[in-house]
């Protein structure tokens, strides 16, 4: 470092002034030699040591003037460089304070105040050290801010990921609950169907026993038939009670969980129908094609289906036929299918009923007509205050 300072001082201050003075000194010496030689040559008799002495004195005075001028120029040049260096340091301090002020505005918790005037150093190198310390502090604050921002982003990402995981877990639980509810409803419907079938068989057996008792048989056989009839009467009473209880339970569940599917390729009609039915507390889904309706049939049971007849690709009649085929193939409960059509004449009605429709609703329909259709097929389902 000291070697670099000496080289800088020599190259920047001394040498630019020294080489002109060396040339001037050489010219002065050459002039003295020329003058001495001319005096010696012109009048060698008058040349003496006094003449040489005066030439040496003149040379010494000239050299002294050159050295004095050199020192004054070096001092002036050094002072000028010091002033320029001080100005550069002042500009550097100003820029540093401006950067610190900007950082303080963006980060209020980290301030960067300038030093007091009484404590401010006067020497340029000390001032440069102060600026260096200020910039080092600013760098530390920037690094701290970057680390804090990275930690904040990491925390936000972890929190967001936790929320997404919780949401996915809740969605899976909801799917399991909905699947369990659908299975329970289907099992309840199957149980009701089995009980009704068993009741029919017992009624048929009871009629057959009555017919056998009226024929000519022995008293012992008649007594055995009467005993069987008595036991069968108890079984019939038990089955009738179970069937009635299951029907009432299914009606209550149907009122609470009636599911409706609206199939219409018109987005406006689909939206209005869904809004109207959802205001009645029903579980409503909407699809815009027959293909989507058949896909929904495979994943959930619908008590009531409003089917638009005129749809592209797969119309309402073909969709109804496939719907009924799926129900027969899987021995599932039948949904109530209501056709939405503008063709309500005898031919149109026969075509809909032949395809498997249960009823027809003329388009365009009014809200009261739609609600009346639901009340007709599912009495007591709608809110009494709105349907009184």
Task: Provide a descriptive summary of the structure in words.
This protein has three domains: 2-38 and 54-106, no CATH class; 182-253; 258-377, Response regulator (Rossmann fold). The chain is built from nine helices and five strands; from the N terminus they run ααααβαβαβαβαβα. The chain has helices at 2-42, 49-106, 124-214, 219-257, 267-278, 290-299, 316-330, 346-355, 367-377, and strands at residues 259-263, 283-287, 304-308, 336-341, 359-362. A five-stranded parallel sheet has the order 2-1-3-4-5, with helices on both faces. The radius of gyration is 56 Å and the shape is rod-shaped.
Q: Indicate the CATH topology of the largest domain.
A: Rossmann fold
**SSE ordering:** HHHHEHEHEHEHEH
CATH architecture of the largest domain: 3-Layer(aba) Sandwich
Kindly give the count of domains. 3
Strand content: 5-15%
Count of helices? 9
> Given the helix and strand composition, which structural class is it?
alpha/beta
Main beta sheet: strand number and arrangement?
Answer: 5 strands, parallel
Shape assignment? rod-shaped
| N-C termini distance | 102 Å
- Gyration radius, to the nearest Å? 56 Å
The average pLDDT value, as a whole number, equals: 75
**Widest sheet: strand ordering:** 2-1-3-4-5
Total strand segments: 5
| Name of the CATH first level of the largest domain | Alpha Beta
Instruction: Report the uncertain regions.
Output: 251-255
| Helix coverage percent | over 70%
Full CATH superfamily name of the largest domain = Response regulator
């Amino acid at each position: 470092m000291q070697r670099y300072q000496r080289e800088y001082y020599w190259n920047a201050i001394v040498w630019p002034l020294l080489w002109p003075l060396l040339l001037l000194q050489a010219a002065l010496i050459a002039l003295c030699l020329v003058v001495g030689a001319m005096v010696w040559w012109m009048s060698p008799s008058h040349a003496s040591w006094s003449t040489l002495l005066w030439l040496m004195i003149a040379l010494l005075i000239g050299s002294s003037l050159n050295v004095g001028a050199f020192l004054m120029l070096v001092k002036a040049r050094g002072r000028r460089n010091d002033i320029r260096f001080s100005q550069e340091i002042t500009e550097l301090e100003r820029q540093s304070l401006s950067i610190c002020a900007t950082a303080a505005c963006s980060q209020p918790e980290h301030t960067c105040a300038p030093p007091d005037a009484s404590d401010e150093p006067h020497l340029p190198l000390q001032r440069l050290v102060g600026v260096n310390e200020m910039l080092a502090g600013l760098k530390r604050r920037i690094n701290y801010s970057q680390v804090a921002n990275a930690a904040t982003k990491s925390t936000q990402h972890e929190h967001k990921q936790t929320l997404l995981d919780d949401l996915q877990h809740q969605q899976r639980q909801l799917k399991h609950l909905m699947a369990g509810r659908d299975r329970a409803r289907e099992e309840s419907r199957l149980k009701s169907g089995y009980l009704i079938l068993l009741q029919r068989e017992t009624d048929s057996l009871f009629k057959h026993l009555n017919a056998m008792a009226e024929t000519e048989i022995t008293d012992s056989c008649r007594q055995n038939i009467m005993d069987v009839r008595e036991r069968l009467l108890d079984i019939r009473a038990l089955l009738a009670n179970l069937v009635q209880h299951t029907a009432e339970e299914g009606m209550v569940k149907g009122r609470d969980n009636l599911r409706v599917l609206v199939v219409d390729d018109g987005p406006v009609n689909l939206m209005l129908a869904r809004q109207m039915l959802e205001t009645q507390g029903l579980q409503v889904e909407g699809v815009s094609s027959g293909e989507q309706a058949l896909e929904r049939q495979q994943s959930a049971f619908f008590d009531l289906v409003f089917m638009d007849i005129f749809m592209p690709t797969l119309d309402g009649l073909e969709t109804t036929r496939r719907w009924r085929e799926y129900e027969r193939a899987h021995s599932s409960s039948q949904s109530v299918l209501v056709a939405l059509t503008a063709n309500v004449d005898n031919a149109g009605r026969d075509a809909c009923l032949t395809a498997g429709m249960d009823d027809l609703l003329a388009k365009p329909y009014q809200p009261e007509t739609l609600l009346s259709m639901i009340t007709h097929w599912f009495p007591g389902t709608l809110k009494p205050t709105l349907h009184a």
